[in-house]
Amino acid sequence: MKAGKIIFFLLCLNLVSNLAIAAGPPTCPADVASDCASDSGEWKGEFFPDIPKIKYEGPSSKNHLSFKWYNAEEEILGRKMKDWMRFSVAFWHTFRGTGGDPFGAPTKMWPWEDGTNSLAMAKRRMRANFEFLNKLGVDKWCFHDRDIAPDGKTIEESNANLDEVVALAKELQGTKIHPLWGTAQLFHHPRYMHGGATSPELGVYAYSAAQVKKAMEVTHYLGGENYVFWGGREGYQTLLNTDMERELNHMARFMEAAVAYKKKIGFNGTLLIEPKPQEPTKHQYDWDAATAANFLRKYGLIDEFKLNIECNHATLAGHSCHHELETARINGILGNIDANTGDPQIGWDTDQFMMDVGEATLVMLSVIKNGGLAPGGFNFDAKLRRESTDVEDIFIAHVAGMDTLARGLRNAAKLIEDGSLAELVRKRYQSFDSEIGAQIEAGKGDFDMLEKKAMQWGEPKVSSAKQELAEMIFQAAI
Ligand code: XUL
Ligand code: CO
């Protein structure tokens, strides 16, 4: 486990590893020179010439570049599938993931990449992103400021780089596409080694605020519907050198300032906290949904934030994704899902595409009970395996991920329409559907009255939990 955490820490860095490559003049890779105008670095023609627009062909189709279960316009439980799902592509995995890991070099040499972290390359990548979205039929995307535009030497330079790329993104978005959410990357640069909002250095706290301020502005400008805070380094490595109370207070003050700024600029998007227990820190302050909810309540922020639940983070916290979604839902703060999954044999944040229909069905049961996720949705915070290196694999992974969740939606709807699971649960609690039960639930069940009842009723009859029956009903639907 110790080794796993170290590996994961390095994998996290790898997410953005190519950002560390020094910016240089745009170049074109020798083997694709014919597609790349030598002086401007512009890409000519399509980025994915061999991939057609992905269509729904139904479950019997053998075409791997088609949807078998996701039929955007089809209605399930009175709502179009696309409106239940609200899918989004994560720019960092899809366009900045290199396949490099702590033991090996990048494996993905996408034809449009020229090996630089230049502005010209950032723009070319952005064009590839929009061709991808259009061909996949997804109208939302998510980004970190630093994965779409190169970091500069000063805040001003970084902001200018970001503005240039964002202007292009705005143009490419047209009227239909917009970000599901944007965020600031406060974990890659060495200045953030002790955290951003929880850094013991005042200068870093201020720098983080400046970065979040700008990231919020561009998210708003692009029509983003949400803004995410994932505090990868907001935590500690040892309590011996850490004033946890002071750091949490700082984090709360930071969040208050973010709320105030959001209101100041008229950004109506939802602010989302994304829990994760550890990696890269040993202990991340937003450990899980319950911890994040407690933080929000303690500091009076519960009405200003919702949660972005990531399934792989849930399993790292020792929960199921379903547990985290239900915890967020019953607290009224389920805002968005970072749709991915882990590997039970690995134990770190592998960020795989969710392919388990059972898991997807449980996820969708929560989403339906929540009445959907809007203005949130499903962001594919998932990356190709290091060994998947064909351009078409990017499409295949997203198609399979979308189909798995769509199948989950169909199954969850079946379970709800069938009603036997709900009936099993109803029966389990039916003793409370009584006068005394109602009294207890209304907060009027005092101990004197309950003692009298217990004596009057005598030894209670305790019924079976019917777990295997519940599992049988669930299995039959998937
Ligand atoms: C890291 C993670 C992030 C957030 C955004 O585990 O999930 O990519 O989603 O910063
Ligand atoms: Co995430």
TrEMBL record:
Belongs to the xylose isomerase family. It comes from the Eukaryota. The keyword Cell inner membrane does not apply. It is found in: Cytoplasm. The lineage of its organism: Eukaryota, Viridiplantae, Streptophyta, Embryophyta, Tracheophyta. Residues 1-22 form the signal peptide. It catalyses: alpha-D-xylose = alpha-D-xylulofuranose. PANTHER family: PTHR48408, XYLOSE ISOMERASE. GO terms for molecular function: metal ion binding; xylose isomerase activity. InterPro entries: Xyl_isomerase-like_sf, Xyl_isomerase-like_TIM-brl, Xylose_isom_bac, Xylose_isomerase. This is Xylose isomerase. Its EC number is 5.3.1.5. GO terms for biological process: D-xylose metabolic process. It is an enzyme of class 5 (isomerase). Pfam families: AP_endonuc_2. NCBIfam families: PRK05474.1, xylose_isom_A. Residues 151-324 form the Xylose isomerase-like TIM barrel domain. Its main location: cytoplasm. Keywords: Carbohydrate metabolism, Cytoplasm, Isomerase, Metal-binding, Signal, Xylose metabolism.
